[in-house]
Each structure stands twice: as C-alpha cells, then as structure tokens.
Amino acid sequence: MVKLPTPTQELKHPLLDEKEIKLFVKRDDLIHSEIMGNKWRKLKYNLQKMKEDGLDSMVTMGGAFSNHIAATAAAAKAYGFKAVGIIRGEELHEFSNETLKTASENGMEFQFVDRNTFRNWRTNPDQLKVRFPKHYFLPEGGTNELAIKGCTEILKEITVPHDLVVTPIGTGGTMAGLIKSANQSRIVGISSLKGNFIHQEMEVLLNRNKVINRNYELITDYHFGGYAKIKPELIDFINWFKEIFKIQLDPIYTGKSFFGVWDMIKNDKFEKNLQIVLLHTGGLQGISGFDRKNENII
Fold this sequence. Notes:
Elements: E1 8-11, H1 14-19, E2 21-27, H2 38-52, E3 57-62, H3 67-79, E4 82-88, H4 98-105, E5 109-113, H5 115-123, H6 125-131, E6 136-137, H7 145-151, E7 164-169, H8 173-181, E8 186-191, H9 197-208, E9 216-219, H10 232-245, H11 254-266, E10 274-280, H12 287-294
Parallel strand pairs: 2-10, 3-4, 3-6, 4-5, 7-8, 7-10, 8-9
Antiparallel strand pairs: 1-2
Helix pairs in contact: 2-3, 2-7, 3-4, 5-6, 7-8
C-alpha cells in the first residue's frame, strides 16, 4: 500500500546546533516497501496513462542493480500490468543478483543485451518501440514528462519552513520536478555521476519540459569516483548516519547526497539560520546486492 504524504523528520545533533542549521529529511523512502521514493513519484502518472490508453504491457531499460527496474516490476505486479526489462549486460541472468531475482519473481521478463546495443537503444528509443509496438515505453531511470509531473508533488507535502531542498541526481527527473514546482525554495542537486556533463543535461531536460524556473544549483564534488563507486569514508558515514538517526541510506544516491550536505555544514559552506530539507529518494532495495558484492559493508 502506498503511504502518502510522507513525513518530514527533523534531525537533532550538536553539530547542527553549533552551526545554527535546521536539517530535515523528507522520508519518501517510506512511500512503499518496494516502489519507494522517487520511483513511485515517477511511475504514478505513467501507470495512469497506461490504463487510460488501454495498454497492459510496458517495456523499460536498466542496469543489473537498477532501482527503476526493481520498482517498475513491483508496480507492474501490484497494478496488474506485464513488464519487460531490457538489461545492460548479456552475461547476466535473472538470478545474477537480488534486484534481478526479485524483479523476476514479480513477473518481469528480461532481455539481456550487450552494452553497445543497450547504449544504442537508450539513445534511439524508437528502435526499441518498433520491437515492442504494443508496449508502453519507459526510458532508463523512468524520467519523462509524466515522471517530472509526479515529482512536482513532493514540495507541496513539505509543510516545515525551509530555504533549500537537496536531492540526489541520476537522470535528473526528480530534480526537474522539484525545480518546476519550486516557488521560494532553492533546489540543490548532488550528482552521483562523475563529470560536469550533468549541467548541460539538466538544462536540456528543463528546456525540453518547458521548465522556466532556474533557481537551482548542481554540486558535482561528492560522486566518490563515479556512479556506483564508493570509498571507505562514504560507507562509514552511511553506517554512522543509521546508528545516530535510525535512517538507512543507500550508497548510490542518498548516501552521497547526505554526505555532501553534512560535509558542507561541517565546513561552513552554508550560512547560519538556514533550514535545509534532504530528500530521501529510497533506493534501499539495492543494498543487499551491493553488500554481497562488497562483503556486507553496510
């Protein structure tokens, strides 16, 4: 069952008192046990559109540990749709990790393709649509116009006074929705991807979706080596954060985003009397597979 609106939880810590910062977490990880966080927000209106169009099958794309693949499979099962996942890596199979295993158990059918084919279909989705003409198409990560519409509903649920809302960035859809719906709030995105290309990609995404507001900032200093890359200090922070605040973070998105904000607070990068909301976008399903790969470090 989907639980909305999600709570906004204040964090209490001596560092925050010392720096005169109020810090909150928007707990979108509590939306649903499997369709959590920004994945539910992105899927909501796409599922409605499928139903309106009389379609019963969807096709989408993702990597072996994709939160989007996991959430789409769970949503398809919950709402009575069929789902096909195009998975990057022809050497993989449905039992390669817990993400794929669970998605398969939820009824998703897989097609495993080599990385060149995957890249080609991702950048030229019409080729994939020709192969699946009767399926509703969702891009990798689930970001499209309807996904952005779903993410515009996050800010209206935040009732505490705030100056900044901070979100992790992957494909940019969640941030685009926040920017589109922001009035006085400034939106800050912390990229999990290495490189400054995200600046150009965000502008393209905002222009394509006619988002006029530009009250945002992108931070690219906390990628820890790139997507799905980690360093010991990140894992130490995630485990510390859970112990202190009883909130689980993931190492791909929220861990990096929360680490970045905490680091900036420690180093006086924010002015005093600032009220900051951290968006917890979920992504916790991938921890079991991540731990198996990295010997249970979270």
